[in-house]
Design brief:
mainly beta; 42% strand; globular
Amino acid sequence: MSNSCTPCVCRPLRTGIAIPLLAALALAGCQSGGDTPDGAPGDRNDNRPFSGIAENETLHFTGTEPFWSGEVAGGVLTYTVPADDGVSDTAIAVDRFAGRNGVSFSGTLNGKSLTLAATPGACNDGMSGRRYPFAVTLQLGDETRLGCGWTGAEEFTGPA
């Protein structure tokens, strides 16, 4: 019997637990109901953190409606949005957390709590025709944005 994970679309919560809850849900590992060898996916005894994005790798991310993008490298998240005079880049310090099925980065942007969670899974931005290896959820204050991500080791495929 196989078990598969299905990504969820999270809606903004109005309580102070939105960020920790979002990170916990996004990073929860799928658990199978059957027996699996130690260390196999779905093994309830495996408590190793997600290693699909190494601490020294740069995670790039992008999203639409509205357009947003950026990257996380070395404890700094750079958030980019369109502006009247081109683009606006804002860099913030973030803390990294590797859960069972993904990684998250948390900090504060313009006085709002920010959590970016990346989980493995095919992702399409709906516009470029690209396929990305990570689904990304950005929680910025009360707003939730969905996007896609990639690294140097796990690149997107499709048009450049």
